[in-house]
Design brief:
The chain is an alpha+beta fold. It contains 25 helices and 17 strands. The strands form 3 sheets. It has a 6-stranded antiparallel sheet, with helices on one face. Helix 7 links the parallel strand 13 (231-235) and strand 14. It is globular.
Length: 618
């Protein structure tokens, strides 16, 4: 089965004659063009009509791409009153959904994605002017940019969650990422600036009040997508996140096609809880169960060179399964699907919040600390070291860089710091370590944390990892909606006191409290979680032949970033490695696959001439 690529893309051009050459290169690839008031091309690309709101009034242009609950008439009133791009955010204040916001006012452009980063933005200098785009690869093609070897090296050990700020960096030289929560402005001269439009809120609300806000935000997020009577697919893993979305979609009037993957692990309770939930959903719900043993194994399609995305992604592991689910849902009358991805990241703050909590010692603090230490089996010494550590984020990054160049076995510790230790796998060469350490030192000198405290920083970081997953699904052409990544949902969660949103004695208290009365109580008490480790090992074994053939001309080896012999053991005998190196094995496979895809498709497939129209239309 081939790995598909989504065809959605856009480019933002400044209101200058110099942009005409860039437009000329994109014209045949685009199916839609929106122009500045001057008549020059502004927004060029391809997107579905149902996903766009385009408003033109007076000298202003406003485009919302994605899910947005705002009435177009309201948007038009705002656009008529706009005099500068500085007032654009007021036009969408309180909007439900997840979208790119783009505006052209008086010759200036404004563009931004989302707080979680499920809708990204990049910028590069093309022919002397700043050009924005939702895909880094578009700008890399326009500028003939090379892959950044340092970023490739850094992803070998942690494609799933590289340390901040490397997690949001572009993989191409000269292409700059606009960080989630930040907006790009381009003036009349074609010069760009980036500034924050969103900042993490203060975590000050008690659980009950915060849960009420989360309930309203999730309900609105689903209602912004679902219309009464529509057929919608929805994941129903048996976990609290997807189950909540199913009941909210049913409440909104959707006719549900619920999808459950049944893991092969003995004792896994996913299917049990999913069937309980399906029995309590409306009678017109269709429940489809897919035993994983009967699906294409993990990594199916690894031998086929597909379109490369903006960055390596772990989600190549189950793309064949996801494509199968897409076909099944279409056979049942829908191509839209709700997914609970992001719930773990958004509603459950990480234990790092304890680091700030101990500054206000109390009996509650001691109970929480003791509970987490017992649950995580933290040693007394490791916990004490973590609590006494007062380094700034820059100092911590610098220490990670130093440790990479003096590799030793990392001492087990309590997860109360700025992040887990940055490590490289045994097959990483000295050059790979040096390149990664250089990036960390650069970041240490100029990168502030995502929030003032370690706990809030770690929580925002988690949210952004959920956004990266959602973005990857979109670029692979999956029409999957992830309401937990919506700005309003994130805002509601981050406002709650972390020690109430997570405790060592209950599972996801914030979400379970929010869903009380919507999801039956019997389904809110689950404390277990499904595991697909066995499926991953089976996939690695099933594709040993392909991985072995890769070793003969591995791009990572040719680039001097990986040792061939150590890589051979990692790919062909992953079961013999320490458990902590398993994620790095998968990350390295993802990076190698991405490099091979990029070499096979140097020109993005979505930038090939549009097959339906000889010229783009507005």
């Amino acid at each position: 089965m081939s790995r598909s690529c989504g065809g959605r893309w856009f480019v933002v051009l400044p209101d200058r004659e110099a942009a005409s050459a860039v437009f000329g290169r994109l014209r045949r690839s685009a199916c839609r063009v929106v122009r500045h008031a001057s008549g020059r091309p502004w927004l060029v690309g391809c997107w579905a009509e149902r996903d766009a709101r385009v408003v033109e009034a007076g000298g202003g242009r406003l485009v919302v791409l994605g899910v947005c609950g705002l009435d177009p008439a309201r948007l038009e009133r705002w656009v008529r009153e706009l005099r500068t791009v500085g007032g654009v955010e007021s036009a969408v204040a309180g909007a439900r959904g997840s979208f790119h916001l783009l505006a052209s006012v008086a010759g200036e452009s404004y563009a931004r994605g989302t707080a979680a980063g499920d809708r990204r933005l990049f910028v590069a200098d093309v022919d002397g002017i700043a050009v924005g785009a939702d895909r880094a690869r578009t700008l890399a093609w326009l500028t003939d940019a090379s892959v950044d070897r340092g970023q490739v090296a850094a992803r070998m050990g942690s494609v799933g969650s590289p340390v901040y700020p490397l997690d949001q960096a572009s993989m191409f030289q000269g292409v700059r990422a606009v960080a989630p929560g930040h907006a790009l402005r381009v003036d009349r001269e074609g010069r760009s600036t980036v500034a924050a439009w969103w900042r993490p809120p203060t975590a000050e609300l008690p659980l009950a009040e915060g849960a009420a806000r989360l309930r309203d935000a999730l309900r609105d997020a689903v209602a912004a997508r679902v219309r009464p009577g529509e057929v919608w697919a929805s994941d129903l893993s048996g976990g609290m996140d997807s189950t909540s979305l199913c009941f909210l979609a049913a409440e909104a009037g959707a006719r549900l096609v619920a999808l459950t993957l049944a893991p092969s692990a003995e004792g896994d309770e996913d299917l049990l809880y999913a069937r309980q939930a399906a029995a309590l959903l409306p009678r017109d719900t269709t429940h489809l169960v897919f035993p994983v043993t009967q699906l294409p194994p993990y990594l199916t399609g690894l031998d086929e060179r597909a379109e490369a995305q903006d960055e390596p992604s772990l989600w190549i592991r189950d793309l064949a399964q996801q494509n199968l689910l897409m076909r099944e849902t279409r056979a049942h009358g829908t191509d839209r699907r709700l997914c609970g991805q992001g719930g773990d990241h958004v509603v459950l703050p990480p234990p790092a919040h304890l680091h700030g909590l101990v500054r206000r010692p109390s009996l509650l603090t001691l109970r929480h600390l003791a509970g987490y230490a017992a649950k995580g089996r933290w040693s007394y010494n490791a916990t004490a070291r973590a609590l006494l550590d007062r380094r700034s984020y820059g100092s911590w990054l610098a220490a990670q860089a130093k440790a990479l160049l003096d590799p030793r076995e990392p001492a087990p510790g309590a997860p109360l710091g700025w992040g887990p230790p940055v490590t490289m796998p045994p097959w990483a060469t000295a050059e790979a370590r040096a390149l990664t350490a250089h990036l960390l030192r650069e970041a240490a000198a100029s990168t502030p944390p995502l929030a003032a405290t370690r706990g809030q920083h770690a929580w925002v970081y988690q949210v952004r990892q959920a956004g990266r997953v959602a973005c990857a699904y979109g670029q692979y052409g999956m029409t999957v909606d992830m309401p937990f990544c919506d700005d309003a949902v994130i805002e509601a969660c981050l406002r709650v006191r972390a020690h109430e949103a997570a405790t060592p004695w209950s599972y996801k208290p914030l979400l379970s409290t929010a869903m009380r009365g919507i999801v039956p109580d019997a389904l809110l008490g689950r404390t277990t979680k499904g595991d697909f480790t066995a499926e991953w090992h089976a996939g690695m074994k099933a594709h040993q032949r392909h991985l072995h053939s890769w070793l003969e001309d591995a791009h990572l080896v040719t680039a001097g970033l990986a040792d061939r012999h150590a890589l051979r053991r990692a790919w062909l005998s992953p079961g013999t490695l320490p458990a902590r190196e398993g994620p790095a094995v998968e990350s390295t496979v993802a990076v190698e696959a991405w490099l091979r895809d990029l070499a096979r498709h140097p020109v993005p497939v979505y930038l090939e001439e549009h097959p339906h129209e000889s010229a783009p239309v507005r």
